Amino acid sequence: MTRNSFAVRVLGILACILVPLFVCSCDDDDGVGPNGKTEPGWEKLGPPENGGIPFVLGVSAIDSQTAIGVGYAQGAIVKTTDGGTTWTTRNIGTSNLLYDVVFVDTEHGWAVGDDGTIVATADGGESWVLQNSRIRDLLVDVFFVDENEGWVVGPAGTILHTGDGGTTWVSQPSGVSGGFGGVFFADTKNGWVVGGSGYAGRGLVLTTSDGGETWESQTVELPIGSLASVFFVDGQTGWVAGQELGEDPSSGDPADVPVVFATTNGGSSWEKKTAGLTGIFESIRDMFFVDAKKGWAVGPTTSGASDMVVLTTTDGGEIWSPTLIDSENPLYSVSFADERTGWIAGGGILATTDGGDTWTRQRLDQGEFADLEGVSFIDADKGWVVGRGGVIRATADGGETWTLQRSGTERDLDDVLFVDANNGWAVGAEGTILATTDGGETWRSQTSPTTLHLRALSFVDASLGWAISYYDILATADGGASWTKQPTGTINGFHDVCFVDANIGWVVGDQGIFATADGGQHWELQTKGVGVPETGYYAVSFIDVSTGWVAAFRFTTQQAIVLKTADGGQAWSYVDTGVSRQLADIFFADAENGWAVGYRGTILATTDGGDTWVTQASGTDNWIEAISFVDEKQGWLVGYGGTILRTTTGGVAR
Predict the structure, then answer these.
(1) According to CATH, what is the number of the domain 173-331?
(2) Which of 324, 382, 476, 513 is the most exposed place for a label (fewest CB within 10 A)?
(3) Which CATH number is 367-647 given?
């Protein structure tokens, strides 16, 4: 079951330089086989070794036909040489998440990401080499002025410089306390970095006139906020952008709103430019200008809607005009080859050939590499997986081979569930509901009462089922021939749903854990033992009316926790799993054996009903999204980049 919303939340936090995600390491569960060699508990069934399609976070336009995208996938970037008609993958030799990419000409480019990762190409992205940054800090932005001089920044306060194309990298102290999200240089000497001084801190703009040997602060009126992007068209004319604490005009509640400052004197003074931003929320993550007048900014969203916003200016930022983009993912990066041709990275790729008046989603050649969001097995042999681009694949031999089934849609699919060998459903973007009664030989679209992105499914038999979006709970009593919205009152923010019979079920989400005893007609917040502050509840698994578990993440302490109940949720207790990676799904095969999965290949397992958890080696850094077990030994996991893992030992190495 997908947890795309919190994936976006983590990446958005990183991109906005508010709360860097710190990951703790845990010992893997090792074992020795009868031949004296360690045999892993999880077997990789997909994708092939040459990588996968990234969840694209950064894009660089090289010319009107050529662009490179980087992001989250095991060992791959995407590249187009025909204006985006086709995109192909390239192996880059690292499985780390990449946040940004820049090219200075058609041949020379660099990308940066997790764990101090810097990779470089000298042949237009056909091949890449790993460079030694000498650090393990997160790197989020990179800028080069030519094939030799470049800088990299990160939220830990990192500034790195190279004068030889990245053969050597040297740290440059900033002299201030805070983290950085953007860097730009007008030439080899004059440059700027932007960021923030910490959570609820002030925005930072630093400038240098000696290539970063020394830095000094510039004054910007941003007492509570942070800056994530900086762009100059020459040594004098530039912009910085990010977010500040503002107010929702409809409710009066505090809210993060985008902010832009402009300068015409190299930053000696900065003037706020917010005309046209009313009703727009969240942060500007990236900007691009083709001259002193025309530019674009991405990152914000509309209040209470799934629409993302592309901001356009034709007067140097005096007024910004929003264009709404129907996307479940935030827009992270924007790059233009000229005043008409540009690309946006936002999970996938959006393109324009008319200066941003219209944007078209470009289809990545995903094939076996499509991000997989849901998995359902009914026995040791038969199973199905679903994912981005409407991908549905089926297996009849436990995952050894897979057959692509015709879904009839290109919309992303987030969850799949079969109750027997014939009857199954899949849900996803724009309220999509698909159903089959012949094991997936044919899939039919069912009428959905919502256009919002459906995240998860729960069926108790071939007739009774439920599906959720962030705001809706849908129910059917006839196998999906008809779906109706159930009353939810003021609760929303749903991430997962689980029913054990026609009456008893739970939903979990941003507002907590809710239970129903009448099939979803009424929902009650379960509070005893749940009151963990600043916590998101992302996945739920019950094996009967009494015994269940919820996977959650405590943001204040960066802890992955699992809550447990033995009385149907009348009281909950929680266990700190010992990791600080967010969890996407949880599944229990019985009262003792369970698993939880999530960020960067995380697999946690328990054999004592969730009282203690141990990590299991996944062999991947890709985000793992969903779990399906048919007993305490045989199970499958799926995730980004076409990842499919299988175990016949409950994940225990031998």
Answers:
(1) 2.120.10.10
(2) 324
(3) 2.130.10.10
Output phi, psi for 407, to 5 deg: -85, -25
Query: 173-331 and 367-647 share one CATH topology?
Result: no
Query: Could you write out the DSSP letters of every residue in 207-234?
Result: EESSTTSS-EE-----SSEEEEEEEESS
Tokens of 219: 């004054």
Determine contact, residues 383/377, Cβ cutoff 8 Å.
Answer: yes
HSE (CB half, 13 Å, CA atoms) of 242?
32
Sign of CA dihedral 91, 386, 501, 509: positive
Q: Which residues pair with residue 72 across a beta bridge?
A: 55
Task: In whole angstroms, give the CA distance from residue 9 to residue 640.
Answer: 17
What does R_g of the chain's alpha carbons equal in angstroms? 24
Write b or e for each residue in 303-320: b if 16 or more Cβ atoms lie within 10 A of its Cβ, otherwise e. Answer: eeebebbbbbbeebbeeb
Is the pLDDT at 551 greater than 60, yes or no? yes
What pTM value is reported for the model?
Answer: 0.63
Domain boundaries, the chain: 54-171, 173-331, 367-647
pLDDT in tens, 434-491: 999 999 999 999 999 999 999 999 999 999 999 999 999 999 999 999 999 999 988 9
Give the strand pairing for 109-113 and 635-639.
Answer: unpaired
Interval 377-395: pLDDT, tens: 999 999 999 998 899 999 9
Helix (H) or strand (E) holding 122: none
